[in-house]
Amino acid sequence: MGLDANLFISNKWSVRNIQEILKNHLDIEEQKLNFHEFEPNYVTVSFTYKNEDRGLHIHINATRAGFMGVLLSLRAWGNSEEILRGIAKVTGGFFAMEDCSGTYEEIEDPEDGNLRFLVDLALIENKDDKIDKARKILNFRKK
User: Fold this and answer.
1) Domain-by-domain residue ranges, the chain?
2) Three-state SS at 18
3) Is 74 exposed, middle or buried (0-12, 13-18, 19+ CB in 10 A)?
4) I want to staple 117 with a disulfide (CB 3.0 to 4.6 A). Which of 10, 39, 44, 84 is the partner?
5) Is 2 helix (H, G, I), strand (E, B) or coil?
């Protein structure tokens, strides 16, 4: 069993966007959101959600199956799945309850689906087979 639950999202989402999602979609008070920047591409957000003290790790420019995006990571206990799925309702992305499982569930981006995210990156890098490769490597499955 993995230690972390992960959500891999498009790099169009910034730390500021994630802050707004936590406030407006998960009802976390802004004054209770504490951001800590450790490196330019690594930020943690500490907050309380349903009486749980949580630390959300945000890895900017993270890579999964050759795709660059934002990796959100929470310790896999309590309401971690609810928190990450709450974020995914807004951002879409690829969710894994156990980071060691190697299996990600695709959660559609409500705006344009995740396919746009994958296709854009494949076109930018001029690699037509990248979408299929990513789905195979990460064992993505539609919900």
Assistant:
1) 4-142
2) helix
3) buried
4) 10
5) coil
Torsion sign, CA atoms 139, 140, 142, 143: positive
Residue pair 132/35 in contact (Cβ under 8 Å)? The answer is: no
Structure tokens at 93: 């992305």
d(CA 139, CA 3): 19
In angstroms, the first-to-last Cα distance of the chain is 21
- Tokens for 39, please give them: 């490196």
Residue pLDDT, tens place only, 41-68 = 999 999 999 999 999 999 999 988 777 8
- Mean pLDDT throughout 14-33? 88
Tokens 């802004």, residue located: 30
Any long-range contacts for 123-130 (C-beta under 8 Å, 24+ apart)? 127/66, 130/66, 130/67
Amino acid code (one letter) for 33: L
Sign of the CA dihedral running 25, 31, 32, 37? positive
Which amino acid belongs to residue 119? V
